[in-house]
Amino acid sequence: MPFSAAVVSELQGEVKRLERDRAVIDARLDALRKILGEEQMSDGGTWGSVFSVGVSPSGRASQSASPIPGPDARSFRDEVLAVIRQHPGVKAAFVARALREHGVAPGGNTPLSHRVYNEVWRMTNNGVLRKNDDGGFTVVAQEEG
Predict the structure, then answer these.
(1) Residue 57: per-residue pLDDT
(2) DSSP string covering the chain, please?
(3) 131, 142 in Cβ contact below 8 A?
(4) Phi, psi torsion values for 96, nearest 5 degrees
(5) How far apart, in Å, do the first and last CA atoms of the chain sit?
(6) Does the pTM of the predicted model rise above 0.70?
(7) What average pLDDT does the structure give for the chain?
(8) C-alpha distance from residue 127 to each of 13, 96, 124 (Å)
(9) pLDDT higher for 106 or 72?
(10) How far apart are CA 83 and CA 61, in angstroms?
(11) To pair with 102 at 20 to 30 A between CA atoms, which of 53, 55, 90, 130?
């Protein structure tokens, strides 16, 4: 028995809301676990398995930097956090450039730069990141831990 278009649309909206809520909760749990010294991330990976971004003297993300090998693929949010942890104080544009140069794509129709800024904005509102006076971002858990 197929559902009507309205029901399907409503269910899809609920799925998106629940995924967004889960992402917020997972990010906060990861931040708290990091503060407490637990190395396990909510998706089963470890903090050491996120990729490492190199930076050239000009401040641009290096294309020659290679990922740190890890058994699990990272979520888009984890990739954004990895860049900001390695380069505290960077702006969202730097994060987007670093991710693009490493072939990280969030999927969907939203441009990567917008997706990065949206993730950073959500993490700032949830206390995972802090926006500096110059517009750069820093991971709050790093400073407290």
Answers:
(1) 39
(2) -PPPHHHHHHHHHHHHHHHHHHHHHHHHHHHHHHHHT--B-TTS-BGGGS---EE-TTSPEETT--PPP-SSPPPHHHHHHHHHHHSTTB-HHHHHHHHHHTT----SSS-HHHHHHHHHHHHHHTTSEEE-TTS-EEEHHHHH-
(3) no
(4) -60, -45
(5) 53
(6) no
(7) 74
(8) 25, 21, 5
(9) 106
(10) 10
(11) 130
